[in-house]
Amino acid sequence: MKICVALLLFVLGAGSACAATRIKDITDVKGIRVNQLVGYGLVVGLNGTGDTLRNSPFTQQSVQAMLDRMGVNIRGSQYEPRTRNVAAVMVTAELPPFATKGSRFDVTVSSMGDAKSLAGGSLILTSLSGADQVIYAAAQGQITISGYLAKGAAESITSGIPTRGRIPNGAIVEQNAPGMSVEGMPLVLELRNPDFTTAVRIQDAINAYARQRYGMKVATAEDFQSISLNRPRGLSTTRLFAEIGEITVDPDQTARVVIDERTGTIVIGSEVRISTVAVAHGNITVRVKEQPKVSQPLPFSRGETVTVPDTEVDVHEAGGNVETVRGASLRELVSALNRMGLKPIGIIAILQAMKSAGALQAELVVQ
């Protein structure tokens, strides 16, 4: 798997305490949730980068079915479509809570076949349904992608993922989102990152505010994730959540390292600690080069000109330096890894090995 050369290393508050955060930024109200939607559709208008219909039969069948609905019959005709300007895609989205008819939201479009890029394409009207098979929205529009593909006769360059994109506000709600009203929902806040310390801090902050504002305590930490609330008399649920959501607390942070092997992204929390350990790392590079050659027959030999393969394989192993990594803090860990001059793939391998050796005092999450 190709790892991006660029390393994106986020240091979360290294060497400093967490900043105060609003309660509404770290909690959800129980009962308020999004609903996952999915649909199947076609993207048209691609500049020769769409599916190969011969290799993607579902795309050809979908094109034929779409033309049938529009009154164009190409079944049984002498010439089958050979266009590469269309691609079959899956459309996914999250229906916001309390979404009503006519409201809009973003959708994600992902290629299913062998399309090279969705750049410049437009999604044709696609129905989006939930897990209950009910159609809640319809999506259509111009796709925007972050990656690109450029190719010539003998070489191509791909950056990012050009076969996936988004349509901002591309879906329109056709049926109201399922769920209860605001006034009928349970008054419970749920932490997005469950933690006993953070739950107690939120309880204390809310009660300190409520004693001054309402003259009573309203919050109780039920466990490491839930904080129940008592609504003061004469106060609406909407106003209660609005006022409580603006209260700031200092959330506690779990020691965690998150690795995305696909993009080479590494995120290391400020609470991560490393036990003393010696690290040696060496890279093996294998380069395979194809240079086809043309073989010409001798004059009057009645032979044929043929192309013969010529493969060159080069293996290079870089020397691995031994470094002692010890660290009471994240700053020392990052400094030690930088001294070794490692690329993202090397840092990922070392962090995984440290975890296996018991030297990484944090949760390791590999995505």
UniProtKB/TrEMBL annotation:
Residues of the signal peptide: 1-19
Keyword Cell division: no
Highest taxon listed in the record's lineage: Bacteria
Entry keyword Signal: yes
Family the entry assigns: Belongs to the FlgI family.
Function: Assembles around the rod to form the L-ring and probably protects the motor/basal body from shearing forces during rotation.
HAMAP family: FlgI
Name the record gives this protein: Flagellar P-ring protein
Species whose genome carries this gene: Hyphomicrobium denitrificans 1NES1
